[in-house]
Amino acid sequence: MQLFLQQKQALIILLESPCTIHFSFDLWTSGNHLALLGLVAHWINQEGKCCRALLGLRRMHRAHTGENQSQILFTVLQEYSLVHKIGYFTLDNATNNDSTLSHLSQQLKDMGIKFDPIESRLRCVGHVINLVVKAFLYGQEFVSTNDAANDEEDLDLYAQWRKRGPYGRLRNIITYNSWTPQRREEFAKITQEAQPEETAFHPIAANLTRWNSDFKALKRALQLRNGFEVFIARHMRDGLQNDQLDVDDWAELQDIVNILEPFHRCTLELEGHRGNGALYDLLPIMDYLLEHLETARSHHTAANSTPHLISSILLAWQKLDKYYALTDSNTAIYAAVALHPSMKFEYFEINWAEHPAWIESARNKVTLLWETWYVNLFNNYTI
Questions:
Q1: 162-174 confidence digits (pLDDT tens)
Q2: Which of 7, 165, 248, 379 is most solvent-facing, going by the fewest CB within 10 Å?
């Protein structure tokens, strides 16, 4: 009841707010297999505090196309009389989200309301990081949607993972280990004997949904390396003959963890509300991670690391650079940096010193955005 009253109060404040309202939405499958579209509003109240409220969790009966999603969004926005207050949408990088905002733009245009579906489409940086790390770990050619083999005879998937180098073989070993309780018990017993000082004796099985599970699986495997080596040696003839790991492989697995560590740290720093993951964090984090990948590539090229590892670093850099370039479509990101007291335009002047045209373009865009908001503030009492 208290949660309901809090939500109701938030909605009353939302409807009374003269401010621009920003949104996020996503599709979600419930435990009873219903497709639901959730729409959340985000705004600043008159006391300057960040507020948010769930506006709707509507059933998605038809295909998950942009047109169908936009119809639900448009209906909810009309119900709350918010079609004249729409600001920005923060979404993941699914292409149907682009289509959704494009269709929503047309619906608003029919009402005489201007809405730029490109400028107003912000991207979730946590999702960007997820895609970048997946490119690094899985590569472009990996197309399977399965976390692991459906059965022990799924040789195609085992072979597909094996192409991903030491980490792919490690995943095969963990999958092999997890197929029977007897193997899991054997692995735990081996680890207890080989590494009695440890408190965890089982490997972690990663999934393809979130890359953090890969990072945890790698960290645990390195922690239990002695147990893995004994287990692999015992099962060389009955399933792991093609997935053994030598000294160089373990060294590369450690290199992978070192490369992923900053991504994991940034992901944790972006979690939460208000204090974390603000819009002004996006560019500094992407700049930091791009530089990290460039340094890693130079280091491993000079160290004559495996072509596979160097190629993986390049794939990750290309993916991140792609989304970095897309930030140029969102002036609000530049404005957030420019208005931050500790960054201002000095951030661009320092970090983009080799690209003066970028700096000038950002300055012009922020100036135009400010002038537009200034006019709206005093003419329409909206920001």
A1: 888 999 999 999 9
A2: 379
